[in-house]
Amino acid sequence: MNTKDTIIYEAHGNLYLNITNRCTARCVFCIKHYSDGVYGYNLRLSREPALSEIIEQLSQTELSKYREVVFTGMGEPLVRLDDVLKITKWLTVRGIPTRLDTIGHARLLYPDRDVAGELADAGMKIVSISLNAQDEEKYNQLCDPKFRKAYQKMLEFARDISRTRMELRFTVVDLPVVDIDKCREIARIYCADFKVRSYGGPA
Ligand code: SF4
């Protein structure tokens, strides 16, 4: 790993984790298409950091000054589910709240596991799922998921989350093709928080 690789970075009073550049989608609005990162941090990894390297960096950080530690970055954290679980447990025993930002393909990545239950047991506080669209057709256009039935399975995973003690959040990007009102209604049905994110890329 290049020593300049950004594994952890801070913004908005939060600490963010960038543990992979792999993803199970290719969203048209992904930052990968127009930038190397966010908030001045380069999030392109020369290789994935080992679990021990992530824990080492966290150990050297004054975690109590952050509101939450967020699995996000330039990739889908759940491709490293077991490491997400171990890091979450490590943070939870230290009293640090955690959030997972995910495209929500957990049921397709791990069809034989109860990912929502495992995340809850590890101590995850909030799961923020990229809803991204009001229906499957628009979702496939915008996100180009690697899996078939990804939209439906993402919603099933959201339902799994809503049945745990974790908070569920849906996000969308404010693109003209996204029907924000319909997406907000989906969030209401799932009793989820709803957040509209600004698109920062080229037109
Ligand atoms: S899910 Fe996130 S990281 Fe993956 S392609 Fe979409 S915006 Fe990029």
UniProtKB/TrEMBL annotation:
<dbReference type="GO" id="GO:0046872">
    <property type="term" value="F:metal ion binding"/>
</dbReference>
<dbReference type="InterPro" id="IPR013785">
    <property type="entry name" value="Aldolase_TIM"/>
</dbReference>
<protein>
    <submittedName>
        <fullName>Radical SAM protein, TatD family-associated</fullName>
    </submittedName>
</protein>
<dbReference type="InterPro" id="IPR023821">
    <property type="entry name" value="rSAM_TatD-assoc"/>
</dbReference>
<feature type="domain" description="Radical SAM core">
    <location>
        <begin position="9"/>
        <end position="203"/>
    </location>
</feature>
<keyword id="KW-0949">S-adenosyl-L-methionine</keyword>
<keyword id="KW-0408">Iron</keyword>
<dbReference type="Pfam" id="PF04055">
    <property type="entry name" value="Radical_SAM"/>
</dbReference>
<keyword id="KW-0411">Iron-sulfur</keyword>
<keyword id="KW-0004">4Fe-4S</keyword>
<dbReference type="GO" id="GO:0003824">
    <property type="term" value="F:catalytic activity"/>
</dbReference>
<dbReference type="InterPro" id="IPR007197">
    <property type="entry name" value="rSAM"/>
</dbReference>
<dbReference type="GO" id="GO:0051539">
    <property type="term" value="F:4 iron, 4 sulfur cluster binding"/>
</dbReference>
<keyword id="KW-0479">Metal-binding</keyword>
<dbReference type="InterPro" id="IPR058240">
    <property type="entry name" value="rSAM_sf"/>
</dbReference>
